[in-house]
Amino acid sequence: MTQHAAGAAVPKRYNPRLEMYKGIWRRLRKNKSAVIGGGIVIFFILLAIFGPMLTPIDPNATDITNKNQPPSADHWFGTDNYGRDMFTRIIHGAKLTLIVGFLSVMIGGVVGVIFGIVAGYYGGWVDTIIMRIMDVLLAFPGILLALAIVSVLGGSLTNMIIAIGIFSVPAFARIVRGSALSVRKLEYIDAMKALGASDLRIIFKHILPNVTSPIIVQATLRIATAVLTASGLSFLGLGAQPPAPEWGAMLSAGRTFMHDSPHMVLIPGIMIVIVVLAFNIFGDGLRDALDPKMNK
Amino acid sequence: MVETILDVRDLRTSFYTDEGEVKAVDGVSFSVPKGKTIGIVGESGSGKSITSLSILRLLASNGKVVGGEVRFKGDNLLAYSEKKMRSLRGNKISMIFQEPMTSLNPVFTVGQQISETLIEHQGMSKKAAMAKSVDLLKLVGIPSPDKRVKQYPYELSGGMRQRVMIAIALACNPEILIADEPTTALDVTIQAQILGLIRDLQQRMGMSVVLITHDLGVVAETCDYVAVMYAGQVVEYSDVRTLFRKPKHPYTVGLLKSLPRPDEDQEKLIPIHGTVPSPLHMPVGCRFNPRCPAATDLCREKLPDLFDDGEGNQVRCWIYNEQWPGEKEVDVFGEERTARC
Ligand SMILES: Nc1ncnc2c1ncn2[C@@H]1O[C@H](COP(=O)(O)OP(=O)(O)OP(=O)(O)O)[C@@H](O)[C@H]1O
Ligand SMILES: [Mg+2]
């Protein structure tokens, strides 16, 4: 923010925050992979919102006479072992996948940001307790934590969202704590306190705006992880239950027919890869754009 | 006798660190008369800032006021709830800091930041607060205030920003303004302007000022009373004339001797030997004894109280007590005693 102040040609009316957003947009546009990743992400979001309205077929409509068909003009992605149209199911699955991704990251994000800000802002024993809990959560390797939570709560779409949400909390808490800690040390925060500002107002008005960049980057990257985790859990039968057209569940169902009808695993598998990759690339691009120092 | 608005009694503040308890403030007493300016002077690390932060209860989370009283118009602030304390800060007691360059949030306009306090404490509407902000900028001597109010901190110079900080601090007509080295970061000419502004506003608004500084020249020009701090304690408290004419504590004497004075024929400037003790390893007895030219065994064994001379001036030194075991020629009260130092 302040580096603009030192700039030689400062325009007359200039809003530091607006200028910052402009800079981010400029850098983001220049980053090719971020543009591609962002494009795919937007495409999938639009697909998830409008796709189901545009496909005339019921994703769960079975057609036993047409089962295990390879991709064709009638069935672009082929059919599965019940003769259901895979293309329709993939589109409906996109909606499920993105809902799971966004919702779980939202839950994890809100809780994690609150924990992180409280820990970073108050410090002391509050910080110690919160961060030790986060350490415990982080000690579970990868998907294992989500797996453990779902097995306690029972396998269902809602429980899976909650589990992945909890699974995302420590990542947010850590990042936000670090930023909150550094913002907390700025003099103007002390000045605000000396003027009688409440902690809540300082946090929302003066600290949160300073930590939005890392939160956005983290959220984007976490959606990729959430989608992957959700597919994994559904694959194991702990997430979306059949006949829901969830990609992980479809992948799992296709396993038995992998030999004769490879499209049944390939197509959902490729979709998962594309979406996860797109969010990851986009997240990386965002990080570079939001934190120009990293490039130098 | 002037009414006392703030009375700090035996204030003790500790920080709990990995190396142990740091007694940053250890028995500080002074009072702030209504409408007057009191200076707090002392070397770096003597606890000046921590004293003022303790008064407003703004300590870092590892710090705690462990004893004493802070009486504001008779009420002990240390017993206030956090909510009550918050409505006092920036409203009845305001504070400004050393660093005007970083004391403002870079992403809000000057007007937004002044308004924030007015909205918080006086429940003003945004529009009314903005209008008042313009008045306040005018009050602190900022030219074309209606334009400045819409500007961001980066568009202002350091002196200008400190004026804005003062405007924010004075927005609610506080009864006390605590200024922690408000001019240290500024150019000499700007320093004089800011101090002049504070003095001027103090007279107009009738508030009391606690001015923290390590510049005795500033004290001489600005303050009515002075508390000299050394290693977390007040070693001398007196009115400013007495302090400069008849300093009592050997530390004060040393400070004055190390200060160039145009009004006196000085042979040379004499620095005080030795260094400030670490708060983790305070000397036994008087804190100043390792550096004091007059130290006796009593000074090395027992910490003196803050003795009152009966005229409202106080000194924490054995020389001014009947128990003083030192040489008899320093037996008379006053500067003859410490002049030997
Ligand atoms: N958060 C903290 N944790 C531990 N010790 C601290 C903390 N804050 C201050 N101290 C200690 O308290 C003592 C007094 O500090 P203070 O900031 O009041 O000094 P000061 O008189 O204002 O000095 P300066 O002139 O440099 O501003 C110092 O020895 C410092 O090390
Ligand atoms: Mg200080």
Automatic annotation (TrEMBL), chain A:
Transmembrane segments: 34-54, 96-124, 136-154, 160-176, 223-244, 264-286
InterPro entries: ABC_transport_permease, BP-dependent_transpt_permease, MetI-like, MetI-like_sf, OppC_N
Keywords of this entry: Cell membrane, Membrane, Transmembrane, Transmembrane helix, Transport
Gene Ontology annotations of biological process type: transmembrane transport
SUPFAM superfamilies reported in the protein's UniProt record: MetI-like (SSF161098)
Membrane topology summary: Multi-pass membrane protein
Domain of life: Bacteria
UniProt cross-references to CDD domains, sorted A to Z: TM_PBP2
Main location: membrane
Annotated ABC transmembrane type-1 domain residues: 94-283
Compartments it resides in: Cell membrane
GO cellular component, one term: plasma membrane
Family: Belongs to the binding-protein-dependent transport system permease family. OppBC subfamily.
PANTHER family: D,D-DIPEPTIDE TRANSPORT SYSTEM PERMEASE PROTEIN DDPC-RELATED, OLIGOPEPTIDE TRANSPORT SYSTEM PERMEASE PROTEIN APPC
Alphabetical list of NCBIfam families matching this protein: Opp2C (NF045474)
Protein name (record): Peptide/nickel transport system permease protein
Lineage of origin: Bacteria, Bacillati, Bacillota, Bacilli, Bacillales
TrEMBL record, chain B:
PROSITE patterns the record matches: ABC_TRANSPORTER_1 (PS00211), ABC_TRANSPORTER_2 (PS50893)
Positions of the ABC transporter domain: 6-256
Membrane topology designation: Peripheral membrane protein
Gene Ontology cellular-component annotations: plasma membrane
Location in or out of the cell: Cell membrane
Keyword tRNA-binding appears in the UniProt entry: no
Keyword presence, Signal: no
InterPro entries noted in UniProt: AAA+_ATPase, ABC_Ni/Peptide_Import, ABC_transporter-like_ATP-bd, ABC_transporter-like_CS, Oligopep_ABC_C, P-loop_NTPase
Keywords, alphabetical: ATP-binding, Cell membrane, Membrane, Nucleotide-binding, Transport
Source species, domain of life: Bacteria
Any one Gene Ontology BP term: peptide transport
Chief location bin: membrane
Name of the featured protein: Peptide/nickel transport system ATP-binding protein
Provenance organism: Edaphobacillus lindanitolerans
